[in-house]
## 1
Amino acid sequence: MEIKILEFNQLDIHMLYELLQLRSAVFVVEQDCVYQDIDDKDQKAIHVLGYKNKELVAYTRIFNKGNYFDEASIGRVLTKQNQRKYGYGKLIMQASIKELETRFEINTIQISAQTYLKKFYNELGFVEVGEGYLEDNIPHIKMLRTK
């Protein structure tokens, strides 16, 4: 998988369309969740895009501390449904963590994780904090990773 890390103004119109289409396919259609994906935060985000044979198959958006949560954060973590068996989710998360730690020299990363993915995030060094909660009617939990 080839990973590209771009700020919002570095995305061309085709990349933007492709990432929004994939986010919609996973979070709105596949998870049957009606929510406002385009939330005016993409402009502050750094976009981590994973390509296989020039097709977007994995994605996250990352934020420096204070741009989304008080801590640096990773969100909109996804892998295209038919590509999940190849470990691309782990690769895109590792690239996102590395980018945050090197670009912003941070020690703590916060995520709002879908509860059923706790084990996946635990394997990447994240630990649960506090009680679970509903976000867009999907169970989530706050998780932190400290260097």
## 2
Amino acid sequence: MNYLNINDKNLVPVVTEMNVLLADYTIYYQKLRSFHWNVLGRNFFDLHVKFEELYTDARIKIDEIAERVLTLRYHPVSNLSKYLKMANIEEESPFIEDTEMVVSILSDHKKLLAQMKLTLDKADEAGDEGTIDMLGAYIRELEKSSWMLNAFIKDTADQLKKVELESVS
């Protein structure tokens, strides 16, 4: 039964990009677990907790993405070997400095956001409101996490951009 009222031909690009996003999130999840286990240094307590928070969120999103693919009436990709070939995100050694871990995670966020926006475009073309709604929330959450991680690695002398407002008479 086609309860979605969306043509299957229009869903194939959505499902394809959702599977790439699933692969990206799976590699990202494991990288976060690895960083959580291996972080050292004076930022240990902050980053150990933050990486756990991020991988817990990623684990939930992995399940939601796979279930959205199932809702669209397709099987999600579920093999690690395929994820490694499909993903935009790559594995990384955990034996790097704590702030380098944050820089790596921020790079992954950029890739995740790009993949989400690509998937969002395909969902919009297909009229897939459920995927659009899900991804919109993901984008908002990941942008906020990125802002916070970026603030963590900034020097206290760094400043945000300013907008000069004209005087209101």
## 3
Amino acid sequence: MGRVTRRHLTDLPGTLGLPVALAVASILAVLAFGLPALDRAVPAERAVASGRPYPVGAGVTVVPPPGAVLDVTGTRPGADRGTVLFRLGLVRYAIDVEPFDGDLTAAAVRLRQRITGINGHRITGTQLAVSTAGGFAGVQGGYTAGDRDGRYAVFVANGLTIEVMVSGDDTDLESALPAIDASTRTLRYEQGP
């Protein structure tokens, strides 16, 4: 057995432990409280260039409606899929692109089932044929979700399905639909270099 001296009792092992622990605690506090505060301080909406194609994803572009802003919380571009969310006042205008190996009928059935699978959502009216200036053939229809109404459209081209969802209250939606319809007609597939 060894003998314990006074020096052994006062010489604390790892004297750097307390400063390191305080530094780690400070970093964790900044991450836990500072980053969420910073995230709340940065606006989710960004201006988009008027009249210029915006890349949705997978080579698909759309010209946003005049006055639309990009909501970055619902926008995820990608090489083989993508989502973009625009807002025109209180109206949501979302476009989702993803790989798809079915036909237009299957894509329309899938989208309608997804809409009606949400509690309180139901399809209204009939489905109509629609096309874009870029050559996409599709179908469109309407739905209701409690106090909000909506429109949907789906297109299939180049191994992709392109789903368009628009929602808002009656008054806002009615005034925004002409600009959104014009924007939807600008959907194009642009192959990269």
